[in-house]
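testing teh design pipeline on a random one, pls ignore if ur not involved
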């Protein structure tokens, strides 16, 4: 629909990204986890083999029987957005999409064998065309990344945890898995927000959509800059006690806080990586099989290190200070050991025993008092 007619005329022309890999927009923590999972031989096959245990068929029948399937005949404007999003991100098979009656604004992409997208009426009624386009792109991004598989398992395990709550210690293992999946899924939401921006290509619309999800349909009473200022205040506010409370507040959630998502997306939109994608320079799906797990984890670790260094959160600043202090201490200690080792070698040569630095024999090593250091270092 963007460069090719698919039955309607788009409101404006948008750039398309043929063959784009989801690695182009994935958050580093999300990407490293997915790359590792994809590299495990047969992992997806084994995961999908669980379909007999998971309620996927039940979910499909539920939405088919009790929701409205988006098509040219029903919610045609949403159908146009869906096809447009799939065309922009070059997703070959357009996933089915449903609108379900629920006043709470929400959307999700679930499914093992085939992803399906679900929008609530609360969301459809809340957002304008450009805001909704970013949301549809967000869900198509989930589909392209393969998030729907892991999201379905997360839903299943969450329900299972509730069912076995009466068994002593029965939820301990499941809760641990759910907590880990939720941490990954929160990062996957940041990835999908980026996909939504690549589809909508309107950062202000993406900001407005997130702001409306947080504050409702009172756009004339809200301001994007003030909303982003909230995220900054949230990050740096309070002391260590507040930092701990932030962690406790976010643990049970599957999504990051809305103001934080807006700030993260705004930061990425101003990053050179986003501009490179818009200029047509991005990783391709055909290269996914050659992706290095080590490089992905290194990038993820680097991202977290940068986050700690630049964070205004009291706890993160403390972690950064401790890490910096430990690094300075390690560097200082290493320097002292190197100096002593060099002195031991010089003393050994002066005493005629070239092995003084290596073996700690007599000669200059003892004269300098460095033989012990040479022994410990060896």
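output:
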């Amino acid at each position: 629909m963007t460069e090719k007619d698919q039955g309607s005329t788009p409101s404006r022309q948008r750039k398309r990204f043929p063959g784009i890999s989801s690695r182009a927009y994935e958050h580093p923590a999300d990407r490293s986890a997915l790359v590792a999972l994809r590299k495990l031989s047969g992992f997806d096959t084994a995961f999908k083999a669980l379909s007999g245990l998971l309620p996927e068929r039940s979910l499909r029948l539920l939405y088919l029987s009790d929701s409205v399937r988006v098509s040219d005949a029903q919610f045609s404007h949403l159908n146009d957005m869906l096809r447009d999003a799939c065309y922009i991100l070059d997703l070959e098979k357009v996933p089915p999409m449903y609108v379900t009656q629920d006043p709470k604004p929400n959307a999700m992409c679930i499914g093992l064998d085939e992803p399906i997208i679900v929008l609530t009426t609360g969301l459809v009624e809340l957002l304008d065309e450009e805001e909704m386009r970013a949301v549809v792109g967000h869900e198509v991004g989930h589909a392209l990344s393969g998030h729907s598989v892991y999201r379905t398992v997360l839903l299943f395990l969450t329900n299972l945890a509730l069912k076995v709550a009466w068994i002593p210690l029965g939820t301990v293992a499941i809760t641990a898995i759910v907590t880990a999946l939720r941490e990954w899924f929160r990062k996957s939401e940041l990835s999908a927000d980026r996909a939504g921006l690549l589809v909508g290509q309107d950062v202000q619309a993406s900001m407005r959509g997130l702001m409306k999800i947080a504050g409702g349909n009172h756009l004339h009473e809200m301001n994007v800059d003030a909303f982003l200022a909230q995220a900054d205040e949230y990050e740096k506010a309070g002391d260590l006690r507040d930092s701990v409370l932030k962690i406790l507040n976010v643990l049970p959630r599957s999504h990051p806080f809305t103001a934080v998502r807006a700030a993260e997306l705004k930061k990425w939109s101003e990053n050179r990586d986003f501009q490179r994608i818009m200029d047509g320079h991005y990783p391709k799906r055909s290269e996914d099989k050659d992706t290095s797990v080590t490089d992905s984890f290194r990038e993820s670790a680097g991202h977290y290190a940068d986050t700690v260094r630049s964070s205004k959160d009291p706890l993160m600043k403390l972690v950064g200070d401790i890490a910096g202090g430990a690094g300075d201490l390690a560097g200082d200690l290493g320097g002292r050991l190197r100096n002593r080792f060099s002195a031991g070698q010089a003393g050994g040569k002066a005493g005629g025993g070239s092995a003084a630095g290596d073996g700690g024999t007599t000669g200059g090593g003892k004269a300098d008092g460095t033989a012990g250091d040479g022994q410990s270092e060896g």
